């Protein structure tokens, strides 16, 4: 049975073994019901499943040595896996997508390619991966189930989502092709939850390690939680747990989250 209120979060941990104390502290304080993690940078055998289980979380994960890696955590439950790869390219062996059901919601956890340097093969891979995501997202959106796409999209949607676009004009995160694909995704009907509830507020989820970006609050919004038509009406709150970024030797990302209200009962839907 789904809970009345669900807190869904996404967090690029930038190395789950080295940031495990930060992750556990965040889970204890903020207690998300569902947490999507990216950039595990660990093989499957090194995933701290026992530590997370002691913290009250069941987990699914797909690791990769030194790079990438995604996981879905569920508080007091075991996520039910539905997909371990993004369809569309059987030769793609990068661990960037994981999909599961938890607490009555289908969640696609993703770590979209960075794409730098651009132009070049890494940027080409980013765009092709994005195109595959758009195609798969359409089927998820039309599934009739409540669905969220959550993760590090490595896209700054607009100039309002970055402290100063001039410094990043050549970066893959701001290229017109990247932004166009993000808009195409939203045009399917997905709701960008943080921007939906905070249309006029500068919100950042990433602060680069260099040039005192965190200390100057010179951030970017690249971690997103998108909701389909069945889930968007349940959106009650959204924010960023900035305190996690302020910890010593923290990830360069902070967790983003949404609060989702109760699903309408079958009787209410009939009415």
TrEMBL record:
Pfam families (UniProt xref): Exo_endo_phos
PROSITE patterns in the record: AP_NUCLEASE_F1_4 (PS51435)
Cofactor: Mg(2+)
Tagged with keyword Isomerase: no
Single GO term (MF): double-stranded DNA 3'-5' DNA exonuclease activity
EC number: 3.1.11.2
UniProt KW Transport keyword: no
Record-annotated membrane-spanning stretches: none
Classification via CDD domains: ExoIII-like_AP-endo
SUPFAM superfamilies reported in the protein's UniProt record: DNase I-like
Keywords assigned: Hydrolase, Magnesium, Metal-binding
Leader peptide range in chain numbering: none
Highest taxon, organism lineage: Bacteria
Domain Endonuclease/exonuclease/phosphatase, chain residue ranges per copy: 9-253
Family: Belongs to the DNA repair enzymes AP/ExoA family.
Name of the protein: Exodeoxyribonuclease III
Lineage of the organism: Bacteria, Pseudomonadati, Pseudomonadota, Gammaproteobacteria, Lysobacterales
Gene name tied to this protein: xth
